[in-house]
Amino acid sequence: MGEETFLPIDAAEAGHPDLTTDVLVVGFGAAGTAAILGAREADPDCDILVLERAGGPGGAAAQAGGIIYLGGGTAVQRACGFDDSAENMTTYLMAACGPEPDERKIADYAEGSVAHHDWLVDHGLVFEHSFSQETQMETVGTEGLIYSGGEDAWPFNELVPPAPRGHLIQTKGATGWLVMKTLASAALGAGPHVAYDTTVERLVVDDGVVVGAVARRQGRREVIRARRGVVLAAGGFIWNDEMVARAAPTLLKANWKVGTEADDGRGIQMAQAVGARVKQMHAGEVAFPIIPPRKLMEGILVNGRGQRFINEDTYNGRIGQAALYGEGGDVFLVIDEASYEPNWMGIGASWVCETPAELEAEIGLPAGSLEATLDVYNRHAANGEDPMFHKVPSLLHQLTGPLGAFDLRIGKIPYAVFTLGGVESTTDGEVLGLDGRAIEGLFAAGRTTSGVAAFGYASGLSIGDSTFFGRRAGAAAAARR
Amino acid sequence: MGEETFLPIDAAEAGHPDLTTDVLVVGFGAAGTAAILGAREADPDCDILVLERAGGPGGAAAQAGGIIYLGGGTAVQRACGFDDSAENMTTYLMAACGPEPDERKIADYAEGSVAHHDWLVDHGLVFEHSFSQETQMETVGTEGLIYSGGEDAWPFNELVPPAPRGHLIQTKGATGWLVMKTLASAALGAGPHVAYDTTVERLVVDDGVVVGAVARRQGRREVIRARRGVVLAAGGFIWNDEMVARAAPTLLKANWKVGTEADDGRGIQMAQAVGARVKQMHAGEVAFPIIPPRKLMEGILVNGRGQRFINEDTYNGRIGQAALYGEGGDVFLVIDEASYEPNWMGIGASWVCETPAELEAEIGLPAGSLEATLDVYNRHAANGEDPMFHKVPSLLHQLTGPLGAFDLRIGKIPYAVFTLGGVESTTDGEVLGLDGRAIEGLFAAGRTTSGVAAFGYASGLSIGDSTFFGRRAGAAAAARR
Lengths: 481, 481
Known about the structure:
Two copies of one chain form a homodimer.
Chain A: E1 9-10, H1 11-14, E2 19-26, H2 30-42, E3 48-51, E4 68-69, H3 75-79, H4 86-96, H5 103-111, H6 113-122, E5 131-132, E6 145-146, E7 166-167, H7 176-189, E8 193-195, E9 198-206, E10 209-217, E11 220-232, H8 241-247, E12 256-257, H9 266-273, E13 278-279, E14 284-287, E15 300-303, H10 316-326, E16 331-336, E17 349-353, H11 356-363, H12 369-381, E18 403-407, E19 416-419, E20 422-423, E21 430-432, E22 438-444, H13 461-479
Helix pairs in contact in A: 2-7, 2-13, 4-5, 11-12
């Protein structure tokens, strides 16, 4: 068994199991953690085994900002004075997560979101009942609530009353590690068997039903029988260049991969090899660390031809996608003195000039291009309007006097990407086959699946849907007989 | 067997074959036609059976413009005075067909292109040794050679000396039907068994090897044994809305599907169901019927914000992709009197105004946006330059005086689309499994595969790679023992 194959093996060929469990969870990141808890809730007595490639729990979520996308009127939202409803949350997500987002997942997720918030709190997460307008990703302070998907910006602010839904635990900076430490500790309390440094290599099938997996631990092959089901919570595929080239080649250009080396697509490929179908494999989230401070968004973002291409006040993940997919990573932020503040990550102005003509020459934009863009922008900003991209009036002013530009080209700043495509699954985590029928015995959650965000994204949706549908998948696997 | 499944069936379960052949070709379009001929060339004595869903041969190619992309110094190119080489053709295709095009297929295709031209001529196609600059799709006259991929426009004209490679047979208008009538007639001369009105529903496998297929003809199920191989030449998936929504949702917006109803993805799905892997399933060609006349390209294309977004002189399929994927189908062509001529399809100016300000108001563009775009364009056009998009100097002049605009928004004109994604195959047409190894007994060509054009496209590449690699696939199947 020195081979690297992820193709399934027949139960008869795999031989006598070395271990038997009821529910086998593959991966101890956000989705796997929730799957353990979900399985335990569904059956206080079932055997749960979780296998993790790394030396401990956490997965990609532990490296993330730690935002969790929740709404519909959570305790945090209410305490901060924001009205929200499952219906408004659904409307926003359907608009923001497309094209062709999974309507059933979104409706279910919005409907169950308040309860999910409470469940997370019950498992130890502490959200401060305070709001910050400054950021869309990690907070600088300890505030518990932020806009993390452009809900307060065009075009979403015209659809439904904006409500912030990015929930953050009461810690400064990136909090994914603490979210995962807390939740994994709760999951360990649920009494699963755990093996770290263990890679699941292939699924075991018996007459089309997934009945276990073959794993490798310290060079030793182990056959695991899962009586009720296998939950693939094995991450995405951003660390598999070949798979990215085949499915999502635009992401190859990006220079910062979000996740762990275990996000090599093995989970998705093991599922495909037993007949799973996949969805929107070209989709990727592209984080773009310009703000905080939000004041910088009073400047304008332009492409390599000096043209604006998006409203600057929208979610910076949307800006990142537009910059990478639409502009090939060739973008700049132009500011005047009134909109300048130091960027939180230390990104500053690469050029400062007295006039637009000098600035466009310095940057290497076509002569007159930035001047023309500024003319149109300033003409309308004077009236508090932005007919091109509908930036909110509070961030509009005429950009005059000396101008500066941040060099946001790919290679100059991090374009942090991870994959959003994966296997198609039901709201109970069942993996769908090519013909749309559930593959018996196989469940999945997290970035192994195409989730709430089909292509468009909001920060917090990954830990959000990983824990929400991971829990479902664990429960469904435990309930299967 | 009333079910619609495309999942494979075991040979034992399928039962005794109703028919036995050496090579089974699924689909009698361009790829299937070439597969028949390739199989016959490889083995004068082998049995070939071709099954076609429609009542006769032709497939999508018969409805197409009929361009065939060939180069490297064909007789037509040489007679028209164009220098070309396999190396230049490879360089162009690598740049134009990405991101991440199939380097082996491209090199092979370019290397074998002159011979493929001669083979097509030997099988009855007549190319006039004349060139037209007017169009990039179908000719208005009977000229045999056109630019069909933007080879003479930026950025490709800076890479290698431009050479036109779109070959057209000596007939006016869309010639796909005659290309296919001629080639299918040659294929029929090769003596295959042929069944029309016959749908291949699933593959028959024996221990992982593809050994035949189950077909349905006039309500009757037939099991076909293929001793040497099955060639899937069953088209793409533009007529399968569910598959398009899952894999290439942007294409759902388009309003004209190119192909036949048999382009429902069944071929791709049958292959996936035996473990085939797929490539760039989100890719689609978007034809945009603005020119001829080429003179119209002296105008400027702008999006719904009055901004230019591409050089107008490039291949209109590239314009179509940029318009649909990049601008959401919200584009206009702005012309002055000097650049106006009636469009070949009857598309005319929807608005005519005395000034840019009036025109932008009429169209509904942001005030000042088109004016600013024209200012920059005219400033540089006066010097014969286009630093924004590098349109060739011969098509540059200042746009002044009364202006008109063509309404090219989706819904106003046809955005004609078909899918480019499909199974991954070798240069011999072998279908690759998820693990990168060829699936024994299974071959594919044409739009069932991801071909020469991974995402970027040139007109003629579909009939081009369908016939080139279809022939290879047929030969490889016939040679298999």
